[in-house]
Amino acid sequence: MKNSRSTVVPRAEDRQNIDPHQGLSESQVSDRINAGLANTVDSTTSRSVWTIVRTHLFTLFNLILGLCGLAVVLLGRWFDTLFLLAAITNVVVGFVQEYSAKKKLDQIALLRRDPATVVREGRVQQVPLDQLVVDDVVVLKRGDQVPADATVLTSDGLDLDESMLTGENDPVAKVPGDAVLSASSVLGGTGRVQIFAVGANSHANKLAQEARQFTRINSELRAGMERVVKWITFALIPIIAIVVNGQMMAVGGWSRALSSGAWQDATIVAVSSIASMIPQGLALMTTISFAVAAVKLAQDEVLIQEQPAVEVLARVDVVCFDKTGTLTEGGVGFDSVQALDNAPAGWRQALAWFGADENANPTAAALSEEFTDVPAKKASGTIAFSSAQRFSAVELSTGAWVLGAPEALLDASTPERERASELAASGLRTMVLAHTASLPRTADGKVLTDKPKASPALLITFREQVREEAPETLQYFADQGISLKVFSGDNPQTVAAAAKLAGMNVDSGAIDASALPADGEELAQAALTHNVFGRVSPEQKKNMVLALQKAGHTVAMTGDGINDALALKHADLGIAMGNAAPATKAVSRLILLDGRFDRLPSVLAEGRKIIANIERVTNLFLTKTGFAIVLGVLLGLLCWQFPLLPRQYSTADLLMVGGPAFFLTMMNNTRRYVPGFLNRALHFAVPSAIIIALSLIVLNFVGRAEQVAGGASLTQLQTATLITLVMLGLWNLTTAVRPFDLKRAALVVAMYLGLALAVLVPISQWYHQFELPTGPLLVWTLALGMLGSALVEVNYQYHQRWLRRYHPDAVAATRAAKY
C-alpha cells in the first residue's frame, strides 16, 4: 500500500467552498455549463472515418489513375476503364477492413459510461458524465471510476487504484485535501470530492493529447511502394509528354490528329501506356493480403486497426511491455506461510476469515485460494482495512488477529522486519499476521480503530500470478532473435521477480527508473543495456522507445494504461490489451481483445507470410512497371503507336501478374523477414523489364514492316504483341514461384491456358478486338516469346548468384522456409 502521492491541486483560496452535503444549486450548475465548465467527454476510442478515408483514397497512385480514368470516361470508352478496377478495389478493401475494425472497437470500448453520483441542492442524484461541472460534489464508493479531476472533501478509508495513470498497482490512500484524478478507480472506502478540472483540462486528457495526433505506421512495404511511386511521379511528367507526343505523331501529327479526331484514339493508347506504368496491382495485392490477415486474426481475438500492423510485427526486433496484464494476470496469488515463532492455534481459520471478508483488499482476498475453513461463529469485532493504516483486524474465538503490511505491524531493526524486507526484495509481496487476546475497546465496548498491540506470528508471502502462456511466448520471441524489455511503474524488484518467473534473463538486474532522468543519454544507454525497469514514468517510456529506435531497432510496445499511450504512439507498433484505456486503444495499431500476449506469435507468422509473398510478387509488378516505362518511352521517341488497347493490356496484366499474384499472396510462406526487399526486387526486375521491352520493340519493328508490305493489320500486330508479352511475363512468373510444388506448377499452367482461351475464344476475340497473326508475324511472335523467355531465365540465374554473394541471409531464409 502507498500513501497519497503529491499532485498539484488548486489553492484553497482559488476554489469555491462547497458544502459536501449540500453541493451546487441548479442555478450554479447552469451558470457553469453556460461558461463552458462542463465535462465534455472525449469519447474517441478508435481512428476517425476521415483518417481511414484519407489513408486509402489520397495517394499518388489514385491521383494518376484517376486522371487517366477521367480522360477515358470523357471520351466515352467505357470498355477501356477496366484498369481502374484494381485502384477502386484497393481503396474499398482497405477502407472496409479498417472501418470494420473501427466499428468493432467502438462497440466493445470499455470506457465506463456509468453516470456519476453527485450532491446537488442537498440531494444525492445521478447525472451523465458530460453534465458534470466544475465544483460539483461527487460521491465515490468502491468500484467507482473517478469521472474528473477533483479534490477530496471527506474520506472514510478512501483508497484509489491509479495504475491506469502511473502503472503502479498499490492502492493509494486519499485524505481531505488530496487530489484524485480521472481514470483512477476506487478500491475501497468512500468519500466526497469537489471537481476542479473537467474535459480537456483533466489530467488524463492532457496525458493523452499528444497521443491523439495521427501518425502513419512505419511500413516497409508501404514505404517501398511509395518510393517507387515517387520515382515514377518525377519521371512521369517528361514520360507523359513523350508518350502523348509520340501517339499524336503516330497518327499523322498534332494538326492532323486534332482536325481528324484521331487524337481520341491517340489519347486512349496514351492512357494505356501511362496506366501500365503504375504498379497498382502491387498496392492491391498488399491491401488484400493485409485484409485477409486481419480477418483471420480477428478469429483469434486480434483486432488490426491499421493494415500494415501485421507486417510491422514481423520486422520488430525489440518488444517492450508492461508487467501487469502481459507477464502477469494483474493480481497476486498465495505463495507461502513462514512462522516467526510458535504460531497460536487458529491462524488457519483467521487467514480464511481475512480471505473471505467482502471488504478484503486484492492481496488479502488471495488467501481464499489456500484457506477455506472460515469460522462458523460470527466475529465479535473487526477493524476494516484502510491503506492509511495498512492493516485490518478480527476478533474470533481464538483471539484477535491483525493482518497488515510489515511496515505497519513490525518495529524497525527487528529480525522479523529484516526477514520481511528480504522477502520483499526478492519480489514477493509480504504481509504479517499478528495475534493478541482481544481488540481494544472503548468503555461502552465499541472497537477502537487504533492499532492493537499484537505479537507477530506469521509472514505470508504472495506471488505475482504469471500468465500461463507467458513463458512459452517469451521463449518464442527469444528464439526468433527478438529482444524483450519490461517497462513497468511497479517496484523494480517486483518486476524483476515476475520477469524471472516468466523465463526472462534478469542477470543485468532491475533498474529503478525514478533514479534516471526523464530524457537524455543516460536514459538512452540504460534502455539499450538493460531489460527490466521499474518506476518508469510515461515520459520515460516514450523516450526509451525513441532511444531504441534511434539505435536502429524496430520497436513494438504493449500497454493498457493511459500512462502507456505516449510510448505506444511513438513505437513502430503499438499493441493495446482489450481492457486498455480508451485513449490507449485509440492510438494503438493492434489490439489483443482478450488480452492474451500469446496471440502475438500468430500475428508475427502472418506478417512474415505477407512480407515474403509480397516480395515474390514485387518482382512481377516491378518488371511490368519497368517494361511499360521503357516501352512507352521508346515508342514515343520512335513515334510508333502503342500496340495495345487498355482492355488488351488489362487482360495481359491479369494473366502474367494480377491473377498469379493474388494466389501467390494467399499461399503459406514461413520465410523470416530480411531487410531490403525493394533493392533485391529491383536488381531482378530492371534487367527483365529491359529484355521484355526490347523484345516487343523488335516485334513491332517487324509488324510495322509487315503492315507496310500489306501482310499484317494493326489488330494482328496488337494480338501478336499481347501473345509475346504474356509468354515473356509467364516465364518471369516461373522465376517468382520457385521452388515449384504442385500448386505453383498448376498456377503457371492455368495462366498459359488462360492465354490460349483469351486469343482463341470468339467472344474474347470480339471484346479484345483480337485477330490472330499469320505468316512471318506469327513466326516472329513465337520466336521472340521463346528467345525472350530464355534471356529472362539467364537474368534469374545471374540474380541468384548475386544474392548468394551479397545477400546470403536472404538465401538462407528462403532455404529454411516452409511453403
TrEMBL record:
One Pfam family linked to the record = Hydrolase
Does the keyword Translocase feature in the UniProt annotation?
yes
Compartment(s) of residence? Cell membrane
TM ranges are: 57-76, 82-101, 228-248, 268-295, 621-643, 649-669, 681-702, 714-733, 745-765, 777-796
UniProtKB keywords:
Membrane, Translocase, Transmembrane, Transmembrane helix
Name the membrane topology term. Answer: Multi-pass membrane protein
An annotated GO cellular component of this protein is:
plasma membrane
P-type ATPase A domain location is: 113-210
Source organism (scientific name) = Rothia terrae
Question: In the record, what terms sit under GO molecular function?
Answer: ATP binding; ATP hydrolysis activity
Residue span of region Disordered: 1-27
Q: Indicate what this protein is called per its UniProt record.
A: HAD-IC family P-type ATPase
Q: Which residues form the signal peptide?
A: none
InterPro entries cross-referenced by the UniProt entry: ATPase_P-typ_cyto_dom_N (IPR023299), ATPase_P-typ_P_site (IPR018303), ATPase_P-typ_TM_dom_sf (IPR023298), ATPase_P-typ_transduc_dom_A_sf (IPR008250), ATPase_P-type_domA (IPR059000), HAD-like_sf (IPR036412), HAD_sf (IPR023214), P_typ_ATPase (IPR001757)
